[in-house]
Amino acid sequence: MKKTIIIRVLLVFAIFLLASSFYYLPYYVSKPGMAKELEPIIEVEDGYDEVGNFMLTTVRMGRANIYSYITAKLMDYVELYPMEDIRVENETDEEYNIRQLHLMDSSKTAAIEVAYKKAGVPVDYRYNGVYVLHVVPGMPAEGKLKAADRIFKVDDIEFNNSEEFIKYVSSLKAGDQISLAYERNNKIHHVSMNVEAFKDADNKEKVGIGIGLVDDKEIIVKPAVKVKTDEIGGPSAGFMFSLEIYNQLTELDLTKGYEIAGTGTIATDGTVGKIGGIEQKVIAADHAGADIFLAPNENGAKDSNYQAAVLTAKDIGTDMKIIPINSFDEAVDYLEKLKQKK
């Protein structure tokens, strides 16, 4: 009898543990990820080889349950972020994932443009419409459009950019009907809806259909380049993408035989921007044996990624050099002056 009670108690406890692992708290938890060589990911047609490696760095991030929350409180370099710091208001899991993948696509496009222009190779674009990133609850698009839909025509009008799309829809009056042609899962669909005034106080005098959107544009370059990122999301690899692409386009090997990790967004003007999780990325780079880590300097801001990276490097006792970088040109200049590794 006593043995039966113990078994029942253990069974109830096991069920509780299992169930609680699926109960998510309003936080995200991040921890050091990996540093991954970029040469197998990026391929410029007939590009030059390199002796060393450029590496992108990642963090592992996901929704926090009870156990990961406790772990984050007890361990160094495991961070908690309130959900509102990560997600857009009313954003679904699907919309969040699509937004992260689109940010990655945008960073790849910007990296290609920066690298090719630096190498003196012409760049052109083909505009394909707009991607839906988010649908606002209670607005006309709800239930009709979904994240990842590609709208390519409005009232039989094709646009050259998302600004033209927004300007056209904003010019209508509440109650006016519009028709959209869009692509979903490789199939063409048509839908009509009325535009409405937005319900939030900041935009109540404006009308729309209630979608967050971005340009769907395709970059055209020769020689061709392929960037295979699979399910990696976010914009933080853009800077390192640009260096790897440029290195394959030009005869001089910028790696000089070193293992070079780093992080940062990249703008089309070459500006290297701040990212989240710099501390975890420094740890990932150190674990991968990187010699150099390129960190966004943000023009010397006191709370820059570079400053945080320096503190982390000192704390973990790494020999990896932390280099402050403000722009793509500055990074190329540093690497060109770097002595060959013996």
Automatic annotation (TrEMBL):
SUPFAM superfamilies for this protein: PDZ domain-like, Ribosomal protein S5 domain 2-like
Enzyme Commission numbers on file: 3.4.21.53
Family annotation (PROSITE patterns): LON_PROTEOLYTIC, PDZ
GO biological process assignments: proteolysis
Catalytic class of the enzyme: hydrolase
Active site (record annotation): 236, 281
Transmembrane segment boundaries: 5-25
All residue ranges annotated as the Lon proteolytic domain in the record: 231-338
The keyword Hydrolase belongs to this UniProt entry's keyword annotation: yes
Catalyzed chemical reaction(s): Hydrolysis of proteins in presence of ATP
A GO molecular function held by the record: peptidase activity
Keyword entries, A-Z: Hydrolase, Membrane, Protease, Serine protease, Transmembrane, Transmembrane helix
Domain PDZ residues, every copy: 100-161
NCBIfam families linked to this entry: SepM_fam_S16
Family stated for the protein in its record: Belongs to the peptidase S16 family.
The name this protein goes by in its record: endopeptidase La
